[in-house]
Amino acid sequence: MAGLPIKRLLPRGLYGRAALILLVPIVTIQLVVSFSFIQRLYEDVTVQMTQNMVPQLRYLLKTAEIQSSEIEAQATELGIGAKWAESAMISRIRFYDLSGRAIRDTLVDNVPGVRAVDLVQDRKWVFLSLESGAGPLELSFPRSRVSARNPHQLLVLMLATGILMTVIAFVFLRNQLRPIKRLADAADAFGKGQVVPYHPTGANEVRSAGSAFLNMRSRIERQTQQRTMMLSGVSHDLRTPLTRMKLGLSMQEATPETEALLNDVSDMESLISAFLDFARADATEELEMADPSALVRDIVEKAKRDGRKVALGVLPEGSIEMRFRPLALQRALDNLAGNATRYGTNATVSLDVLESSVRFRVEDDGPGIPEDMRDEALKPFARLDAARNQNKGSGVGLGLAIAADIARSHGGVLRLGESETLGGLSAELVLPR
User: Fold this and answer.
1) Angle at the Cα of 211 (from 224 to 284), degrees rounded to 5?
2) I need a labelling partner for 357 at 20 to 30 A (CA). Which of 89, 127, 171, 197 fits?
3) Is the pTM of this model over 0.85?
C-alpha cells in the first residue's frame, strides 16, 4: 500500500516510462558527481589556497603591531590592500557561496584577531577585518588568490553534455517506439473493423510481433469471409424452398392450418434474415463522413412509415459530421427501435454530442430489463423472461447482439439502463467522435 502513491505519479505510457528510465540515471549521476565530488574538490582547493595566504596575513598583523606606519607599504609589496579602519566591518557571505564559507572558516581558524570577513561588497575581492594592537586593520586582496577561478565551468560542461546526450537518446528512443505505436494503431483499427496498411519495422522483437499480428489478421479475415459466404449461401438455398412453400400455401384454400403454416414460413424467413444480419454486422462496409442527426431523423421517419410509435427526441443544434458506417449503424438503430416498439407502446430516439463521443439513445415505456440480466440480454440468441416477451411476438434474440457488435466495430459500446422519461428500457449506443 505504501507504494501506491508513487505508482500514481509514474507515467502510464511506454514512451514516458522509457524516458523516465533514461533520465533518472543521468540526473542521478550528474547530482552525485556535482555535489559529492566536484564541490568537495573545489572546497579542498580553496582551503589549500587560503592557507597559503595565512603566513602573509600573519606577517602583516605582526608588522601592524610593531611598525604601524609601515603596514601599507608592506601590504602593497605583498599585493594586499591595507588601511586603518574607523568602524568595524560586518561579516557577509552569500548563502549559496560554498567556497566562500571555506575561505571564512580557514581565515578564522588560522589567523588570530579576525573580526569579520566580507565577500559581498565585491565578488572578486576578499575584505578582512583584523584586530591588532594598534587598532582595527582592514585588509583586501583578490579572491582569485584564495579560490579556484571559474569553479563551475566543469559543471556547465557536464550539464551541457548531459542535455545533448539526453536529446540524442530521446530521438533514438522515439524511433524505437514508433514501430510499437504503429502496431498498436493497426491492431486498434482492426478491432474497429478497419484494415490499415501495416509493415513490420523496428527491432527484431517488434518485427516478430508485427508479423504475428499480420498472420492473425489474415486468419480472422478469412474466417469472417468464410462465415459470411456460408451463411449467405445457406440463406439463399433456404429462401428458394421457403418461397415455393409460401406460394403453394397461398394457393390453397384459407383454413386455420394453412394460416398457421404461412406464419411459420414467415417466421423462418425472419429468422434467416436475422442470422444474415448478425453475420454481416462487422462486415466490409467502409467508413464514411456523415451527419448522425440526419441518420436519427431517417430512422424515426422509417419507423413512422411502418406504423410504429417512434418519436424524435433531443438532437444537437446544427449539423455535425463524423466517420461511421451508415448502413451498419442504421441497422443497429433499427433493431433498437424495433425492440422498443415490440416491448413497449411508445419510443423515442435522440442524439447527444459529447466532447469526445456521440450517444444515440433509444427509450421505450415497456417493462425494461432487470439490471442483473442486462449483460445476458446482449448475448446472441438470448431470451429473457416472459415479462418482457408477453404478447409481443417472437424474436430470435439477435437484435441487441447485432447492435452491440456494430458498436464494438466502431470502437464504441452499447449500454442498457432505465429510461428516466418513459420508465422503460434505455439503450445507449456510444461511439467515439
Assistant:
1) 25
2) 197
3) no
Among candidates 431, 429, 290, which has minimal Cα distance to 361? Answer: 429
Which strand (E) or helix (H) includes residue 4?
Answer: helix 4-9
Give me the phi and psi of 424, to 5 degrees please: -100, -135
Going by the DSSP 8-state scheme, the letter that residue 70 receives in this structure is: G
The CA distance from 383 to 365, in Å, is 20
Is there a contact between 129 and 114 (Cβ–Cβ < 8 Å)?
yes
Which amino acid would we find at residue 296?
V
Q: How many other C-beta atoms are found inside a 10 Å radius of the C-beta of residue 1?
A: 4
Strand partners, 322: 290
Residue range 57-63: mean pLDDT, rounded? 88
Q: Which of 124-133, 148-157, 251-260, 375-384 has the highest mean pLDDT?
A: 124-133
Residue 150 burial by Cβ neighbours in a 10 Å radius (0-12, 13-18, 19+): exposed
What is the C-alpha to C-alpha distance for residues 275 and 28, in angstroms, rounded to an integer? 63
In one-letter notation, the amino acid at residue 37 is: F
- Provide the grid cell at 426: 434505455
CA distance 56 to 48: 14
Phi and psi at 2, nearest 5°, equal: -65, -25
For residue 84, what is the enclosing H or E element? Answer: strand 81-84
| Helix runs in 36-111, H state only | 39-66, 71-77, 98-110
**DSSP sequence for 125-157:** EEEEEEEETTEEEEEEEEGGGTS-SSTTHHHHH
Q: How many CB atoms lie within 10 A of CB 123?
A: 10
Cα 308 to the chain's mean position, in Å? 45
Q: If you count them, how many residues does the chain have?
A: 433
Task: Indicate the burial class of 231 (C-beta count within 10 angstroms; 0-12, 13-18, 19 or more).
Answer: middle
Per-residue pLDDT tens over the stretch 154-207: 677 777 887 888 888 888 888 888 888 888 888 887 876 677 888 888 888 888
What confidence tens digit (pLDDT) does each residue in 315-332 have? 888 778 888 888 888 888
